[in-house]
Amino acid sequence: MSRPKLQLALDYVNLKDALEMIEKVESEVDLIEAGTPLIKAEGMKNVLKAFREKTNKPIVADLKVADVADIEFQVAKDSGATYVTMLGASPIENIEDGLKFAKDNNLQAVVDLIGVEDYIERTKELASIGVKLFGVHCGISEQRQGKTVFSKAKEISEAISPLGGKLVIAGGIKQDNIHELKGIKNIEIIIVGGGITGADDPVEAASNIKKAINIL
Asked: How many CA atoms within 13 Å lie on the side-chain side of 213?
C-alpha cells in the first residue's frame, strides 16, 4: 500500500510569501496547494501560473467551487492546476459538472465536506455519483472553537471503505498530532498548512511530518 501524499497548503494573502515557502520546502512535500485566501487575494490565474513556473510538483487549486464547476475547473486547468476542490455542500448538479470536466480533462476533483452536517449520508450520496476523493476538513474557524479533524476522519473512513473512496484530510495537522491519524484507512492525501509554514523551521517540520506519514 502506498503512503499518503503530503500536501503543503499555502494560505497566505501575498504571492511573494507563498513562492518563498515553496522554494524552502518543495523537496519535502508531494503537492503544492494554492489556498483559497491566496487565490482570492492575488487572483487564480496569477497564482497558479506563478506556482507552475516555480515548481513541477502537482498543484492544487483550493477553489471550493460552489457553482459552475466546469467553468472554474477550465480556468484552473488552463492555469496549471492538477487538482481542484469543490464544496460537498453545493448542489449535486455542480458536483456532477465538476466530475465530468475532471474526467474529460485529466484533472483530479476533491469534494470538500466542510460545512456538511450529515457528512456520512452525504458521503454515500457523493460516492454514488462517482466522487473518489473526499476532503475531510476541519476549518480554521472550527479549530478556534476546539474542534479537530481526527474523529471525523475516522467516521468517514469507515463509511467510504466499502465504496472505494479516498480521504484528503486537512485541519490543524502538525508534527505533534499527526500520529492521531494512525489506523485510519484510505488516506490519499494529508494536508498541512500552518504546521509547516508557521513552524520555526519549516523544512524540519515538513521533513518530520513526512517521516511520520511513512509509519502511519
From this structure: 25
